[in-house]
Amino acid sequence: MTLDPTVLPLLRAWPAVMRRLVDTAPEAARMESDRADDGDGWTAKDVIAHLADVQMWGYADRIAHMLTRKSPTFQGYDEAERLDESGLRDGSLDDVLKAFEMRRRWTLGMLEAADPSGLDRTAQHSELGEIRVSHIGHVWAYHDLVHLRQVASFLQRPLWARMRNTRRFSDPQSPVPADPPAPSIDPQAISTLTAMPEIVRSIIDLLPDDRAEEPVAGLSQTDAWSPRDVVAHLLESQRVGFAGRISTILTTDTPGFDDRDAARDLDASGYRDQTAHELLEIWETQRLEAVEHAADLSHDQLIRSGEHATVGTLTVADLVHEWAHHDLEHLQHLCTMLEPPLLEGAGPFEAYYR
């Protein structure tokens, strides 16, 4: 029994990736007040507290028992109750991140040290039946990805609140707020745009080269794209859809814009002839220049606008906020691309997440 090659690198990298992501929010208080839409009442801080908590008793403790006892038995648990009992909710966001980092370093060693026979050791789960150490390793990494997607969705909310007609790129039926567009940029937008190439590189670095280029079918977003294609799309949409449109608006009075087809643009870009890491190099360089320009835009520049054939008026400020929101959307898209082999290796846990 072996682990998928992304499992251990992902588990090692994830505390730093999560910290870099939440650091894009300029105020921890806003992070702590954003609520989930699924009714669990968790904040972004609660999600990270859950990650810090569950890796102790949900993963590492079970692995330790399985490696030292013959077929132990484990009971199911209520995640919300366990989080309440942990006391982690009482700390600051930074306290919770430090707990996540420290506990991950301590707990991961047991999985790293397990040889093939150790990965094959079993236990009985009260709800799932027989589970193996390898199953826990895969579901642990999968669980990290699921909750990074959840935090990324939390961070989209303040950006969405500042968007106007650009909301209709994501949701054509979305109502547009009646109040005038904000003549300033939320600092989170600039922080997100600055951090995203580093975050995406951290994820691409987890993948064997062939998997970075391999299409992943069956996802809810653009079907049969590879992780490399996501990087290529972020680069091309930056060049044409965001930085390109902003430049046009700043140099032309009320320019007109047509709809773009992401798949067609990607095919025409030539980026599929390059590796994911080659594209990252280009994206990082161009993003640095683009963000420096966006951060220096004046009030008069931010209120300049163009007309889009489908969604209507686009101001520069609206485009900057939609640009950061788009980054977070494709961060979630990229995470979903890493998930299938982890879920396939999770054994009986797969049924829990399907």
Tell me what you see in this structure.
This protein is mostly helical. The protein has 2 domains: 1-160, dinb family like domain (Four Helix Bundle (Hemerythrin (Met), subunit A), Up-down Bundle), CATH 1.20.120; 163-340, dinb family like domain (Four Helix Bundle (Hemerythrin (Met), subunit A)), CATH 1.20.120.450. Helix content is 64%, strand content 6%. The chain has 16 helices and 6 strands. It has a 3-stranded mixed β-sheet. A hairpin with a 3-residue loop joins strand 5 (305-308) and strand 6. Helix 3 packs antiparallel against helix 7 (133-162). The longest helix has 30 residues, at 133-162. It is elongated, with a radius of gyration of 22 Å.
Q: What spatial form do the alpha-carbon principal axes imply? A: elongated
The end-to-end span amounts to 23 Å
* CATH fold title of the largest domain: Four Helix Bundle (Hemerythrin (Met), subunit A)
Q: What is the overall number of helices? A: 16
Q: CATH architecture of the largest domain, please? A: Up-down Bundle
Poorly predicted runs are none
- β content, as a range? 5-15%
What is the domain tally?
Answer: 2
Percentage of residues in helical conformation? 55-70%
Give Rg in angstroms: 22 Å
Structural class category: mainly alpha
Mean of all residue-level pLDDT scores:
91
CATH superfamily of the largest domain: dinb family like domain
The biggest sheet, with number of strands, parallel, antiparallel or mixed sense and barrel status, is: 3 strands, mixed
Count of individual beta strands:
6
Give helix and strand order, one letter per element, not per position.
HHHEHHHEEHHHHHEHHHEEHH
What's the quaternary structure here? single chain
Reading side by side through the largest sheet, how are the strands ordered?
1-2-3
CATH level 1 class label of the largest domain: Mainly Alpha
